[in-house]
Design a protein that fits this description.
The complex is a heterodimer. By secondary structure, chain A is largely without helices or strands. Chain A contains no helices and no strands. Chain A is elongated and about 15 Å long. By secondary structure, chain B is an all-alpha fold. The chains are: A little secondary structure, B mainly alpha.
């Protein structure tokens, strides 16, 4: 999974 | 990507696309607050700074481009289009939206995930989105008439927020360390802002009467 604070939401 | 988040993104997309289509087809923006549309354009501009430097997925990039393009074209239509701009109700759309921008900027400088330009701008966009609907709700109270497209616009925006909260609950229980307090608190505040509108919208729909917001 992407590292924690990656902003993958819009 | 869980179903709540996809549904949330789709209703969010629907809200801006329906609005843009309304303005484009009937060449009118009556009942729409330009201030709210400007705030949304700022929200997307501040949030998607990493659009070209940080690739998450094709979906993510495409949606960011669509949101940026639609929010800026709505503002363009309302300010520049020779026919549409005449239908803008500037006498009632008088909420001083810089009153919202400054506190959000200060709050973002204080509360952010990391004190870097991009993170502060991201937090700023999260806080600003939470209050961006305010001028629109004030305009609706003022003019007291809600044409069904404006009602649908606010309704879809509210639905997108509710779906996002379900998405966060789902991710919290399925992804070990998924914690985003900033989005969660701001998102809940934003959704509460819609709560009373939802109440009157559903009541009017149920009693099949024209939607009236209390003075």
């Amino acid at each position: 999974a992407a590292p924690d604070n990656v902003k993958d939401e819009l | 990507m869980n179903v709540f988040r996809l549904a949330g993104d789709m209703t969010h997309l629907l809200s801006v696309v329906v609005l843009l289509l309304k303005i484009h087809t009937i060449k009118s923006c009556a009942g729409i607050s330009l201030k709210t549309q400007e705030l949304y354009a700022v929200v997307f501009a501040a949030r998607y700074l990493d659009l070209f430097v940080h690739f998450v997925s094709l979906y993510n990039t495409v949606m960011k481009l669509v949101f940026l393009a639609s929010s800026f074209s709505i503002v363009w239509y309302m300010k520049r289009h020779k026919i549409v701009r005449r239908t803008y109700d500037k006498d009632h759309d008088t909420f001083r939206h810089y009153v919202l921008v400054l506190p959000c900027l200060l709050l973002a400088l204080l509360i952010n995930e990391k004190f870097t330009f991009r993170e502060v701008m991201w937090a700023f966009s999260i806080y600003l989105e939470a209050v961006a609907i305010f001028p629109q709700l004030v305009l609706l109270q003022r003019t007291r008439n809600i044409d069904n497209l404006t009602g649908q616009y606010v309704f879809f925006l509210g639905a997108y927020r509710v779906l996002y909260i379900l998405n966060w609950i789902y991710r919290y229980f399925t992804e070990p360390h998924f914690v985003h307090w900033i989005s969660w608190v701001a998102g809940i505040v934003q959704t509460l802002l819609y709560a009373d509108f939802f109440y009157y919208y559903i009541m009017s729909w149920k009693n099949n009467v024209k939607l009236e917001l209390p003075a």
